[in-house]
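Protocol step 4 of 5: obtain the predicted structure for the target chain.
Materials: sequence only (see below). No template structures provided, no constraints applied. The aim of this step is simply to have a reference model before the mutagenesis design in step 5. Sequence pasted as it appears in the construct record:
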Amino acid sequence: MSVAKQDVRSLAEAARKASRVLASAPTAQKDEALRAMARHLRAALPSLLAANAEDVAAARAAGKPSAFLDRLLLDAGRVEAMARAVEEVANLKDPVGERTEEWDRPNGLHVSKVRLPLGVVLMIYEARPNVTSDAAALCLKSGNAALLRGGSEAARSNAAIAAALAAGLTEAGLPAASIQPVPPGERETMLELLKLDGLIDLCIPRGGESLIRFVAENARIPVVKHYKGVCHVYVHAAADLEMATSIVLNAKTSRPGVCNAAECLLVDRAIAERFLPQVGRELVARGVELRADAASAGILGQAGVTARPATEEDWGREYLDLILAIRVVDGLDEALEHIGRYGSEHTEAIVTADAGVAGRFTREAQASGVVWNASTRFNDGGELGLGAEIGISTSRLHAFGPMGLRELTSQKYVIHGQGQVR
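Step 4 output (structure tokens):
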């Protein structure tokens, strides 16, 4: 199903009108809508799974890789997780109207900064059906109307999810146009959306590198990029090796097709001969293909662990699969240099018992999330207590890292006087 160019503006105009209602909607009404949306997601489980089964079958027939199919797949557990995430957003504090700062001026003026919605948020994303419900919930709670343009591979799934969400909105008496799916179509249609700078306030693209670049290069509206996750785990010479093994295994294998999964392991030369055989065996046992530099390949080979030689293309690559690049480094400086050259400013982790080294790493590693002695998988809105996230921003303006409710608001100055003139 596609949408004609001339219909794009009408969708955005309806969203703009709905955003004015949402901006002043009471918290209780928004929360009522969110809980109704969660109920309707659960009630629609059979239709959601049927729609998703068609999408998955089509993607499998098209030869899509296993990581892609994993991102696309819905099952009863994932639908329940989607519903719970919507309910969690309802339980979060409403940021709209929050007074973040206030002060008095010498002339008697009282100044405060107050949060307000951005307006209309356009999400452009690929084969992740859960983004539909997560983005809808976060935009609604933060008082924003949402235009949701998912990928064609998940079109049936997204349409079924959007129908369930719309039923919850209607039940709570909020405008149906508060959450609107934009059926996937030709890129010319997407270009029309990206030109609507008077109607859409922010675009958030989530997906592959080509999608992000297309949006950034063609948009006339502000864009917060959710770029690829080239995440590193650096095992320092002072690391607890059992802890490091556990962290690396989780960061790579718990869900390899997501953006906060580790793609490259950096190991200090001082511990490489002790650590690499241990972690290498565990990774291979879990089906991970290792792509190693000369030093790590030599150590792994002597231990009987199979690894392919790494090429220059393996550094800075987001595999989104059970593949891990490995490099031996000579200390913290070389690890930071590698990360600075090949990282995508998403998530970087260090494993070490040396607090001084960890402090320098957390200061100097340029990423939206820097982790000490834990998995890269914790750079996630839910894990950080933000509720469902709309994505992980790798832009520094206006948000950096997981985007929750507060990141979907701006701030205005409210100035209270007693007749002062300038």
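Step 4 remarks: The mean pLDDT is 94. The first strand starts at residue 99 and ends at 104.
Proceed to step 5.
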